């Protein structure tokens, strides 16, 4: 009974992935013929089935770029980049899309140790760091036990050192996992979808306008207020309140 | 009018007198004016057309008699018709302000008493200058007027209005060239004077009288403030030719020239604010009727070439008075300060023409650049509502050049090599990806999950468990007697398990026991299959240097197994044999190495 259910599930899932791949291919065909609107519909059909991939987001973003829709184009390039951070094509086309944006926002460069720390932390996702921590725990335990059960002094010394090293490794990877997790918690990027949006000093319409943002600009979400207003932060450190419907979180 | 009346009366008098042969007697009082300032004087004439006697003047209360009475008799013969008039004249000065009536005067003509009608005179406050009707200045002031005509006294803010300055001149006076004394400053207005190239005299009526006017100047004004605004008067110095009573040799009237300062009075204009309702956010004050366009001179170009984008407004309205909307461009484009162009002509209906801002744009990277739509709002005076024109979004395609942010492609070519090396140009927009591996969006994080914590912490538990197990083992190794027992039990469990199960059933028990003993020896001595005779076993045991007692016990056991098939045995004996077997096996185990 159980076996048949498993087989059934496997069959259905393979069927649905086959369907999605067919949709993806249809989208690519439309894209290649220049019917970008149709391609977008196909790609979004794939997304609606609950699956994604960096290539799917990339093609979707390309189609939006070809239609000169700045905000969705950048939005999906960023999505693609989240899944494949080191893909050259994505970086290249994202820079094309960023050319279309109106706002020029300078980012504050990080220097010295904090930059190094950040780059090391961002090397892996927190899940990978967690796996590394588990591996080092296992290493530590096995080294320690073999140290405990071995008799020769040389062996004992080597095993002890190894076990201590792997213990340190475990502490380190665990710390990185936590750090990366907190980075990811704080990192809530969003793309401005409104063609032009006033950033207010306070979360109401009466208050003064601090600055203006245009379509396609990437911002960081800090907090929400009553679902209508979102506090955002730019890479140059400016903060303000924006109407929530003007942005779309990544 | 008055003169016309007099003329008519005179004509009637003439005709009647001729027709009815002096039958009609006229006796009347004539005043030079019915309304005068308290500092002015009044002349009253009592005129009769037949000589009479016993003239008695009225009492002239409220007036003082300044001069008179003076008598004048006028006899004339014209075309055989005799006319006669006799006049008694008084010059009066009023004593106080108010309305007074000069009562009747009487005269006896041919035995009959005639009376004049009472005359009502209004005495007002003192006037600046007692108007002397013969003063040329007074005449000039009465006959030359400067009027400012405002096209709309209640305009909207920034709606064009015109002020036309007209100089009215009565037909019997003339003017010589004028000089402008004071040009009005139009505070709170944007103004433009349209000077007239030639002056035309146009006949018209002014305050019910025949007049001629000349347009001196036209001014277009755009109010810049709401509320009551005052237009300052224009002041002119005009040389006025005034007719005098003197006549020249040919009987023409001589004119005297008088310098006269005329001013158009202050005009107040009530400026309405533009309605707040429906005012677009991007409204910058444009009022009129406009057309709005955003254009570029190229839609495709190479990087570092220049492109011109133009924002232009054309039409009618306050073109010079509002700001053009700004073009917002992608930050990656280099944009220079816009150049402002104005081609505006102003006529009476206001400004018309076009204004534009030209932006010079130099893209430095390739790609598609949108020039976002720009909206322009203005207030339409015809419909009295705001209108917004939104330009279309334009796309500029920059075809050649580096990519922003990407590494510049290495374009060095090996010149010695004739073969054209195929290089991947990284400065192109990458095409779509053909293959993909779709995964579900829903992901479960491993980090901080229960599995993660158990994987992380459970291995640590292995350490104390291992240590505990090790300790236990050491303890057991130290305990010799216990070990032996444990070993024997272990062996017994291994070989005598079947026998133990069959304990109580004589036949099967002993069969099992025998088989167990044989099996034990077989495995211990690594014998495959040999016949197990008792002698053979003894021999083998001896070879292995087994204790004689043990060997004997082993033998006894085998014997009792054989015996048991023929003799009845109790459970107790069975148990004894089982224990013995266990002991023997354990002893053998120790002795056979």
The radius of gyration computed from the alpha-carbon positions of chain A, rounded to a whole number of angstroms, is 24 Å
Strand content of chain B: 35-45%
Strand order in space, largest sheet of chain A: 7-6-5-2-8
Question: What is the H/E order of chain A?
Answer: HHEHHHHHHEEEEEEE
Mean pLDDT of chain A: 85
Average of pLDDT of chain B: 78
Distance between the termini of chain B: 168 Å
The name CATH uses for the topology of the largest domain in chain A is: Serine Threonine Protein Phosphatase 5, Tetratricopeptide repeat
Question: How many independent structural domains of chain B?
Answer: 4
Put the structure in a nutshell:
The complex is a heterodimer of chains A (250) and B (593). Chain A is of the alpha+beta class and 250 residues long.
Give an overview in words.
Chain A is 61% helix and 15% strand. Chain A has 250 residues and is of the alpha+beta class. Chain A has 3 domains: 2-99, Alpha Horseshoe (Serine Threonine Protein Phosphatase 5, Tetratricopeptide repeat), CATH 1.25.40.10; 112-186; 189-249, SH3 Domains (SH3 type barrels). Chain A has a 5-stranded antiparallel sheet with strand order 7-6-5-2-8. Chain A has a two-stranded antiparallel sheet with strand order 3-4. In chain A, α3 (54-66) packs antiparallel against α4 (70-83) and α7 packs antiparallel against α8. The longest helix of chain A is centred in the last third of the chain and has 34 residues, at 153-186. The model of chain A has no long low-confidence stretch (mean pLDDT 85). Chain B has helices spanning 2-19, 136-143, 450-478, 480-501, 506-525, 534-543, 548-564, 571-591; strands spanning 27-31, 35-37, 42-48, 53-56, 63-78, 81-94, 98-102, 106-109, 112-115, 119-124, 144-150, 161-169, 174-182, 189-195, 202-206, 209-223, 227-231, 235-247, 253-263, 267-271, 288-296, 300-301, 307-317, 333-335, 339-347, 350-363, 367-371, 375-380, 385-390, 394-398, 439-440. The longest helix of chain B is centred in the last third of the chain and has 29 residues, at 450-478. Chains A and B meet through α1, β1, α3, α5 and α7 of A and β27, β31 and α3 of B. β1 of chain A pairs antiparallel with β31 (439-440) of chain B, so a sheet runs across the interface.
